[in-house]
UniProtKB/TrEMBL annotation:
Enzyme category, top tier: hydrolase
InterPro entries associated with the record: Aldolase_TIM, Class_I_gatase-like, GATASE, His_biosynth, HisF, IGPS_HisA/HisF, IGPS_HisHF, Imidazole-glycPsynth_HisH
Predominant cellular place of this UniProt entry's protein: plastid
Designated name of the protein: Imidazole glycerol phosphate synthase hisHF
Length: 590
């Protein structure tokens, strides 16, 4: 990769050398690329009629372009954590008047461009960038700078950078979306990445821009995932990153800090780290519910029974959700999952404490947060109907990066397998259409059912590595709903394939038989599912020792491993798990 950081002004017309306060472009600029006819573009040059003004905003203010397409709470929280106050863009003028503009693109490419064009923000953004004003685009905020995207397209982008954005090629043997912590190949002159060095940063996306001769002068880093793609661009004061600095822990916060304060001295000694590829993730899971006193607690049971075996039979209380999540973040968890385990019977939006848990946690925890439990259509006692999309939207607004669907995904998969028709109406389909499939996890709660012969049931049966208690050699994995209370006529294999088709971006694979047992993950099950789908699989249930993590990563294609009990009971710290994985040459984020 060639990475140069020519000042932006060197490629724009000479009037850009004037102080920004006096810049008043009035003629077509040379910056914007000629739009190619075969992409259906109409105008050949972007005619800017806007002006960039000097502003008297203080150093502690950053302008945020939130065009209302989804959750930008995480970036708000990260900026506030760094001591900044946020000015929201209301009009195109606010962009032109910004001292520093952060653009965290969310949602899909086409609707984002649509909003930007209709509101006049697209033109203001182009003018702002053209004038080399401090800019940081994040994720879609990087992709929109390119000429076009294949996402439901081709769809025309802002056209600042030559090139198109396309989907990762899953036939290259990679899981898509690209979810997780990956390494960068950082070029010269990419100061905001100064502290990243060889540490991992967090990506979550299915589309990417490819390096080419035409855009090489923009590239400040690339990332390998089946192929090399553009992970950041930089020209003068204009920066954009494909990864999420607001979700990349302390490393990511350093990227924001350096963008906000370019005068920070260069790093003398790069932070330690040996990132070279996508790391295996270690996830802490918090099963959350109200106890009998009405307090929201983290609980944990064996095989989904969370009540103590005492006379009082109370809900096991392992701590406060916000405190524990904060602790796991500090301990190095790569992701935190909250499962509202009574969500299947209580309406989650009535469960305001859970929303509060997310809000408070996301203020200080800068790794991805997933929340599940009760995501479905619902009519409350007063007859008010809530769509699953509204429930998910509230979770996203409150700080969730991904939502996890359990029971409702089982019903949707059963329906789909029966009819072969995607109705587009299931919660899974609706939420993934609006927020992207990378934002939708399906949580599977299967139970092992032994059979004598593979033809005994119409589900995928496997030959077990370790025979059952009565020497059974075969089993299938029956999906359950309502927290394991009801078995359904569908296997984990069939469900996984169906939900992938319906738009799931990731699978959280529990195993009721192994839950809380501490005897290791169900390797047969994890292998079966992770070999059958092209989306990432999180192995869950049964972790008791660090060796169980290396075993699941060495013998299956799981992308992540999740545990609850051993972390809550402080039997095995997250760092010990990671050190063990490193000893076994399994790449993890440190
Ligand atoms: O069906 O969409 O409302 O989602 C409900 C969600 O809550 C599902 O993801 C379901 O797995 C979860 N759930 C429901 N009841 C319980 C319960 O414990 N009574 N928790 C429950 C299940 C399973 C794992 C657990 C691992 C690791 N928790 O997530 O954390 O098994 O545990 P371990 O490391 O201690 O073995 P919906």
């Amino acid at each position: 990769m060639e990475a140069t950081a020519a000042p932006f002004s060197s490629i724009v017309s000479s009037r850009q050398n004037l102080p920004s306060s006096s810049i008043r472009p009035s003629s077509p600029t040379s910056l914007f690329l000629s739009r190619k006819k075969n992409l259906g573009y109409v105008n050949l040059k972007f005619k800017s009629r806007l002006s960039v003004h000097a502003s008297s905003t203080s150093d502690s203010v950053v302008t945020l372009l939130d065009y209302g397409a989804g959750n930008v709470r995480s970036i708000r929280n990260a900026l506030r954590h760094l001591g900044l106050s946020i000015k929201d863009v209301q009009t195109p003028e606010d962009i032109l008047n910004a001292d520093r503009l952060v653009f965290p693109g969310v949602g899909a490419f086409a609707p984002a461009m649509d909003v930007l064009n209709k509101t006049g923000m697209a033109e203001a953004l182009c003018t702002y960038i053209e004038n080399d004003r401090p800019f940081l685009g994040i994720c879609l905020g990087l992709q929109l700078l390119f000429e076009s995207s294949e996402e439901n397209g081709p769809v025309k982008g802002l056209g600042v950078i030559p090139g198109t954005v396309g989907r990762f090629d899953s036939s290259a043997g990679i899981t898509v979306p690209h979810i997780g912590w990956n390494a960068l190949q950082v070029g010269k002159g990419s100061e905001i990445l100064d502290d990243v060095g060889n540490r991992h940063v967090y990506f979550v996306h299915s589309y990417r821009a490819i390096p080419s001769n035409e855009n090489k002068e923009w590239i400040s880093s690339t990332c390998n995932y089946g192929e090399s793609f553009i992970s950041s661009i930089r020209r003068g004061n204009v920066h954009a990153v494909q990864f999420h600095p607001e979700k990349s822990g302390e490393t990511g916060l350093s990227v924001l800090r350096r963008f906000l304060d370019p005068k920070l001295p260069a790093t003398q000694k790069p932070m330690e780290g040996k990132a070279s590829k996508l790391a295996k993730r270690v996830i802490a899971c918090l099963d959350v519910r109200s106890n009998d006193k009405g307090d929201l607690v983290v609980t944990k049971g064996d095989q989904y029974d969370v009540r103590e075996q005492s006379n009082e039979n109370e809900v096991r209380n392992l701590g406060k959700p916000v405190d524990l999540a904060g602790q796991y973040y500090k301990d190095g968890a790569d992701e935190i999952s909250f499962l509202n385990i009574t969500g299947f019977r209580d309406f989650p939006l009535g469960d305001l404490p859970m929303i509060q848990v997310l809000r408070y946690t996301s203020e200080n925890v800068f790794v991805p947060l997933t929340v599940g439990g009760g995501i479905r259509d619902f009519t409350d006692a007063s007859g008010r109907y809530y769509s699953s999309l509204e429930v998910a939207a509230e979770y996203f607004r409150s700080g969730a990066d991904k939502i996890s669907i359990g029971s409702d995904a089982v019903y949707a998969a059963e329906e789909f397998m029966k009819s072969g028709v995607k109705t587009g109406k299931s919660s899974l389909e609706q939420i993934s259409r609006v927020y992207g499939n990378q934002a939708v996890v399906v949580s599977i709660d299967p139970r092992r059912v032994y059979v004598n012969h593979p033809d005994d049931v119409p589900y995928k049966v496997i030959r077990l590595t370790n025979p059952g208690p009565n020497g059974e050699e075969y089993a299938w994995y029956q999906c359950t709903v309502s927290g394991g209370r009801e078995g359904r006529p569908i296997g984990a294999y069939e469900l996984a394939k169906a939900v992938e088709e319906l738009g799931a971006g990731e699978i959280l694979l529990n195993c009721i038989d192994c839950d809380g047992q501490g005897k290791g993950f169900d390797i047969d099950l994890v292998k079966l599912i992770s070999d059958s789908v092209g989306i990432p699989v999180i192995a869950s249930s049964g972790a008791g020792t660090p060796q169980h993590f290396s075993e699941v990563f060495e013998t299956t294609n799981a992308s992540a491993a999740l545990a609850a009990g051993i972390f809550h009971r402080k039997e095995v710290p997250i760092q010990t798990v990671k050190e063990h994985l490193l000893e076994k040459s399994i790449e993890v984020r440190i």
